[in-house]
Write a structure and sequence with these properties.
Elements (H helix, E strand, L loop, with lengths): L5 H4 L9 H13 L10 E2 L4 E2 H4 L14 E2 L4 E2 L1 E5 L4 E5 L9 H21 L5
Antiparallel strand pairs: 1-2, 3-4, 5-6
Bound molecules: zinc ion (2 copies).
């Protein structure tokens, strides 16, 4: 009998996927519980790379603390440097506001930025 290695053969590979393809793949993976919403590189609400729409108010969540400073009850400001690929978030009031949820969101934004750049840009490294 064949041991299926589904998990490894269907593993998501963001590189070389177009946005619509990756979006659909991530929807499916999320539906079957193989992908956490926090780890998506695409946004199913906006239909874009996560770094392209993360500045939308829809990506603020006071409960999970995605892009939310609890001390100030304020949404974090997103700063994305498309050139360096750096993504940061900070509270406009206290300058901090970090949370585990925001850290994961930042990681996803950096990954989506990198994936989008690999597609459109340079033959890099
Ligand atoms: Zn979005
Ligand atoms: Zn704050």
């Amino acid at each position: 009998m064949n041991t299926t290695t589904l998990a490894s053969t269907t593993r998501l590979n963001p590189v070389s996927r177009t946005l619509p393809v990756l979006l659909a793949m991530e929807d499916d993976a999320e539906d079957v519980g193989r992908l956490s919403p926090d780890d998506r590189l695409t946004c199913h609400v906006h239909g874009r790379w996560i770094h392209q729409c993360v500045a939308s108010p829809l990506h603020v969540n006071p409960i999970t603390r995605h892009r939310w400073c609890r001390s100030c009850a304020t949404a974090l400001t997103v700063s994305i440097d498309e050139l360096s690929g750096d993504v940061t978030m900070f509270c406009p009031r206290c300058g901090h506001g970090e949370s585990a949820a925001s850290a994961r969101l930042i990681a996803a934004c950096r990954a989506s930025l990198a994936a989008a750049r690999r597609r459109f840009g340079a033959q890099a490294a």
